[in-house]
Amino acid sequence: MSSPFELTRCLLTALIVGLCAAQMAVAQSLPNIVLILPDDHGWEDLGVMGHPVVRTPNIDTLASDSLLFTRGYVPTALCRPSLATIVTGLYPHQHGITGNDPGERFGSAGRAEMVAVFRRNTTMMALLREKGYVSFQSGKWWEGSPLEHGFTSAMTHGDPARGGRHGDDGLNIGREGLKPIFDFIQGAARKPFFVWYAPFLPHTPHTPPARLLEKYQRSDRPLPMVRYYAMIEWLDETVGELLGYIDRQGLRDNTLVIYLADNGWIQTATGSAPDQVKTRGKLTPYEAGIRTPIAVRWPVRVKPERNDRTLAGSIDIAPTILRAAGIEPPAAMVGLDLRDLRALARRHELFGSLSAHTSVDLHNPVRNLKYRYVIREDGWKLILPHEPNRSVTLTINGLTADWMSLGPELFNVRDDPHETRNLVQERSRTVAELRALLDKWWPVPR
């Protein structure tokens, strides 16, 4: 006959085993999450988007296996505020990061002050960590140490004293292989994981492997174009390596993969930085600066489909990831779950803004503002300059490039995706309607 002590011990053992089994079952039911964020990549520069030259077979396959939104947008054409939106689910004027760098007048303390502004936000990584996720940062990252914002492992150290600015050691990912990511996934030990893969690709410096460079060389093709095309194929190879590894580990079916660029790009024949502004690419509110395809792959759980109608935004990334992980997003996150096509169909517009690359004020977003813009589901897009900031200049790579138009511009980007016809004079009523939407979204003094 068992003693009371032995019975108690058996009951406790059974209880512990049962709790462990329940915890493991919950962990296994949560999806792994992989977020792929190419850097400075034009929205048309993919095979799946119809580019006639560049080869992207792995991204094209990912797109065909995904719910693909071809009308995807980021809320600003600059990487730091764009990435901050992705992790917070807030617009730049809400999370407080509107530019890449502080102005010189802030001195050496400026970068730490910007990180302190960002630290006031709740990130999706912090919420995932509370749910039991382990997470890994690689590639682009601006906000100091990633470990302060919810990541459990990171490549970037973020220390300005050691050259930390926008990714430091993390920028080696992709260009020098993917082993750090593979090691992290191996070490996750059956815990649900989140991977932030934001490679410095196809971003400058455009230094692709010679074997890829040779594929695009032609006597009538300028070398800067050749280098850019080769960089995109290099990016594509890394995407194939990452997704192939996930497949080989048997993780495909329970891994949510999301793909989008942080901002757009136009590669010119000269390759000079100011040409981005002149050609209305990065650092501008035009389609080439803010549009990106967004792909969502989750086998069995998300039906593959190409959607050329619905507006989708990077403002939706955090809510989508959190809800997939069984987490209710904070009320401040205004985005939608990209898996919910009915909710997306009820959305009528997306908003955005563009501010100075180098912030003149770290605490008042209005003082950095250059443009607000709104894109409506029917294709109408209004770009509205903030005239009081006419003297606030945009800079890129240390060169001033002020291209500000003082008048509103109206395009229908469904009919005219390259924005060749400004219809502001012909459609005054549409301008008034869209201006009212902008003023409701972010009212700023005129």
Protein architecture, described:
The radius of gyration is 23 Å and the shape is globular. It has a single domain, classed as Alkaline Phosphatase, subunit A (3-Layer(aba) Sandwich), CATH 3.40.720.10. The strands form 5 sheets. Strands 6-5-7-1-8-9-2-10 form an 8-stranded mixed sheet, with helices on both faces. The chain contains 14 helices and 18 strands. With 446 residues, it is an alpha/beta fold. Helix 8 crosses helix 9. Helix content is 32%, strand content 16%.
Number of domains: 1
Percentage of β-strand residues:
15-25%
By helix and strand content, what is the structural category? alpha/beta
**CATH fold naming:** Alkaline Phosphatase, subunit A
Strand order of the largest sheet: 6-5-7-1-8-9-2-10
Distinctive features:
446 residues; 32% helix; 16% strand; 14 helices; Alkaline Phosphatase, subunit A
Quick rundown:
By secondary structure, this protein is α/β, with parallel strands linked by helices.
Topology of this structure?
Blueprint: H1 4-29, E1 32-36, H2 57-64, E2 67-69, E3 72-73, H3 79-88, H4 92-95, E4 101-102, H5 110-119, H6 124-130, E5 134-139, E6 153-154, H7 179-187, E7 193-198, H8 210-216, H9 223-248, E8 255-259, H10 274-278, H11 287-290, E9 294-297, E10 305-307, E11 312-313, H12 317-324, H13 341-345, E12 349-355, E13 358-359, E14 369-376, E15 380-385, E16 395-396, E17 399-400, E18 409-412, H14 428-441
Parallel strand pairs: 1-7, 1-8, 2-10, 3-11, 4-13, 5-6, 5-7
Antiparallel strand pairs: 2-9, 8-9, 12-14, 14-15, 15-18, 16-17
Helix pairs in contact: 8-9
